[in-house]
Amino acid sequence: xxxxxxxxxxxxxxxxxxxxxxxxxxxxxxxxxxxxxxxxxxxxxxxxxxxxxxxxxxxxxxxxxxxxxxxxxxxxxxxxxxxxxxxxxxxxxxxxxxxxxxxxxxx
Length: 107
Hints:
By secondary structure, the protein is of the alpha+beta class.
């Protein structure tokens, strides 16, 4: 099991090349790592991507997943649709907004 700060660091490294200016909508998704009892959020606003280790009260969606499965998903080793249909990933709120994260990871 990875440590929370290591996961955030890896996520920030992986998304560093993402062109948030090309994303025209607003996105605010919280990720809850259930096994670590930790949360963080990803927000795209005004052409900037923010990843912060805080709860986001006005989020559009909350993704609940284990840290190991999140790392696999982030690294392309676990398809988010398969994770959702097999119960490894749960989404509260706007499913469409939550699915937008896969576009960020693929870059």
